[in-house]
Amino acid sequence: MSVVIPDDLINAAQMTESEFKLEVAMMLYQQGKISGGKAREFAGLNIVEFRQEMAKRQIDIAYDSEDLQADIETLKSPSSIMIIVSDTSPITSLAAIDQLELLHQLYDTVIIPQAVYEEMTEAGDVPGAIEVQTLSWIQKQQVQNREQAIALRTQ
User: Fold this and answer.
1) Higher pLDDT pick, 68 / 31
2) N or C, where is the chain less crowded by C-beta within 10 Å?
3) Edge-to-edge strand order for the sheet containing 83-85?
């Protein structure tokens, strides 16, 4: 089913099409008519943007026992684990603006090569240096395949 919203209605509301879609999505989510995923999809937002919009509007996250059960099943699935290998730049940049947790929201585990760990922890006052030493979701590993690492660097 398609719904056509007249341009004069959007103009009268003094909104763009994307702003109108966001308002509809947030209203339906807040009323419990659609899930957060459907609201994000309709509004064209990623999860971080959606949560920011919820916070602006002081909308609580709708989370019930069914959501909990679905999350448990998802976590049991081996395909649900997200891992990323990072160099220094994203970690130091996000730590400098106190947003390092964004990496953890996107990825379950962040792996840094031993060289990155040493670069961050031995250089003095580097943003993120304490975090790479203390956060359990940031793990350091020695590079096992140097040829593959070099190839990845050039891509």
Assistant:
1) 31
2) N
3) 83-85, 109-113, 138-141
